[in-house]
Each structure stands twice: as C-alpha cells, then as structure tokens.
Design brief:
163 residues; globular; mainly beta; 4-stranded antiparallel sheet; single chain
Amino acid sequence: MDTKHCALDGRVDARPAPGPRVGTATFDLIVRPADIEALPDDVPDTVVTCTSGDPRITHELLNGIQPGDLLRVTGTLVQPQALSQPARLTVDALEVLDTALVPVLREMVLDWHGDYVVIFDADTDADAVPVFTAHGQWVGLADNPDAIATLIDIHERVNGGDA
C-alpha cells in the first residue's frame, strides 16, 4: 500500500458526516489538477475521501464546514488498490481557505460545473436551478437541470469565457 504525507486544496463535495468510529468525521474533497488550463476540458476532478479522528477537526467538520468550502487538508494519503476507488486521506490538519458562496442547508446540494456552481434545493418543487460563477457572480436561472449547460455556454459567449 502506497502512502504519502501531503497537503491538498479542494472543495468539500457534501456536508461532512460522522465517521465509522465514534469521534471521527468523513467527507469527500474535490481536487482540481494544478495545471487545469493546460489540460483538455473533459479531464475529471479527483475525489479524495477524507477522515479525521482529531476531536478539534471532527468538531469543525461536523459543525462549521459546508459544501463548497475550500479547504487545505494535510495528512497521510493512501492510494487506492483499484483505479475505480477514491484515494483516502487521514487528516491531521485543516485550514479553511474560503467559504462557500451562500450558507447551504442540509436539504441543499451544490454541484460544480467547472467554474460554475448550481444549487439544487430539495425543499422546493420548482425545476428552476440557480447558477452562479465560482466567484459568486449571478449567471441566471436555468429552467430545468437539462438547461444548465446551455445557460453556462451563453454566459461564456457573452462574457468572453471568464467565469
């Protein structure tokens, strides 16, 4: 098993949850390649499954971290035995680099589309989906989830591709 001590910057995918053992927390971190501009558009982000048993980190994860927060986590990275499995990081240090655009309730889900963020809210029956840039600029309201890509394409054409 290949392990490495490292630091990773990434966005929290969903609300951190209590871990498999008492006093632990787990979450998925979405890590983008450092040289993303030099890579093809269809290069996927990397998902790293993170776990911490440190009481201070666990408390912060379960009470203060929300989807979309940008974190720097440091710890021991274990490479997966199969390529279909995510890498695992045991976190021993946590730093919040940036908070999400808006507070996310437990019923809300943020979804990242490159440099764009969409918000799905389970509390509403509406099909319309709000779309923002990663910097918080309002893009528009997609009529339904299938229209998100079209709305982003229009925004990039009108604004020169700068999110």
